[in-house]
Amino acid sequence: MEEDQKKKKKKTRTASFFNVVFSGFALLSDGYQSGIISFINLVLGKIYGDTIFNDTVSSRLSYSMFVGCVVGQLGFGLFVDRIGRKAGLVATTVLVILGAALSAASSGLTPDGLLWMMVIARGVLGVGVGGEYPCSSVSAGESADEVSPGNRGKLFVMVTNFVIDLGYVISAIIPVILLAIFTENNLEPVWRVSLGLGIIPPLSVLYFRLRMADSKQYRENAMKKKVPYWLIIKRYWRKLLAVSFTWFVYDFISYPNGVFSSVIINQVAAGQPMIITSAWNILLYSFYLPGCITGAYLVDKIGRRKTLTLGLISLGIVGMVIGGAFEPLSKNCFPLFVILYGVFLALAEMGPGNTMGLIAMESFPVAVRGTGYGIAAAMGKVGATVGTVAFAPMKEQLGVRGPFLVGSGIAIFTGIVAWFAFQDIGTGGLEQEDAEFREYLQDNGYDISSMGLDNGSSSNQTKITTVHQVSKDADEV
After folding, report:
1. CA 393/CA 59 separation, integer angstroms
2. How confident is the model at residue 202 (pLDDT cuts 50, 70, 90)?
3. 3-class DSSP state for residue 327?
4. Which of the chain's ends, N or C, has fewer CB atoms near its CB within 10 Å?
């Protein structure tokens, strides 16, 4: 009997490991699609010129995905709590595939028509990508806790933010390869193939997501009906406000600098061929990875709060240096400018990039984790949208140095606020929060006997995928 229990526990742990991997991998699309639009902005500007593809159209194309993300994060945050983790993962995967395909196939009778179709397609893509945040991250976080509670932070970061950052790096490499193949004189296949390749990550995990099971924590603590939202708001509004504000600030600073990186480098390195500009972008985006890996080590070593604060204040200081010395850096020492720019982005990933999703996942109980995470992530994307829209006016008023100076000042202030706003959640913290949440509900007259899938109808029963099935599927693919 004891031997059977050990085997069952090992199978469940291995199945949870596969859940972690396949939950997070499709987030590669978020990084890729967010990063590739920087290059697409540059290419479409070359093809159509400033008259058609002006700053307004460029910003519209960039923030359409962010607007879709807000819808997806809010909608799928509720969906993943009420319907299920697996159902949300499958639905978002299909939307990402559809949005990427439509973006690559954009067409119209006029250039304006083509660009409007691309804007709408990027919006659809954004709904799927936005939905990936609560679906993938929540599922990955819960499964990581089942695999190794002591390394939950590290595992979570590596299958979520690191995957997103890897998508950014790939989005910088692909354009250089395509430009070498098609040359700068034939740019249409370059941008179409660049967008179309975003289909590969979600398509590669769709089959496995269809075979996945909901996490053990969700099966035991799901709340599918008569959700006491007022009690939940009373208990968690402070945590929600803190994580939403900090995520808003991070995305306000980080996303515009990622989205317009090619434009910034192209302006600083004026007169260089497009393939050279794109190659510099590879170096720039590559800084994301060491920043992310460093943060993955720190979140469990020194804690979430210290990592977040260190990252925000450090990136603020580096951003001030870039903004203050922009003229001599850009004119006399371009390689040093790119390196400092890369360090700026790396510190953003080391601190808030790694910790915001992790803190949001850990701040709420299983029953409303997707909803809380979705709201916080949506506020982040609102920040990204505001930052993207504000980028052009700041650049016009203050030059390229403007976004660095403004964003850095806000980052330092937010780092100080974060130090007092957050507390670390250690090993066993997720289960403890669920237990305290149940006790809180019971003390306030809520019937907790209906919580968990086992207490629902037979249609709510979850079939656990065995290790043998998952391993066999992996070998077949």
Report:
1. 11
2. confident
3. helix
4. N
Which CATH number goes with the domain that contains 410? 1.20.1250.20
In a domain, 294, yes or no: yes
Please check whether residue 249 is in contact with residue 394, taking contact to mean a CB–CB distance below 8 angstroms: no
Lowest model confidence (mean pLDDT) among 142-146, 291-295, 300-304, 316-320: 142-146
Assess if residue 451 is contained within a domain. Answer: no
- Is the dihedral angle over the CA atoms 346, 350, 355, 358 positive or is it negative? positive
Q: How far apart are CA 66 and CA 60, in angstroms?
A: 10
- pLDDT score at 267: 61
Q: Residue 372 in contact with residue 363, Cβ under 8 Å?
A: yes
**Alpha carbon separation from 105 to 74, 121, 155 (Å, rounded):** 28, 9, 36
For residue 7, is it within any domain?
A: no
pTM for the whole thing? Answer: 0.81
Structural domain span for residue 38: 13-206+230-446
Structural domain count, the chain = 1
Backbone φ/ψ region at 106: left (φ over 0), alpha (ψ -120 to 50), beta: beta
Residue 278 within any structural domain of the chain: yes
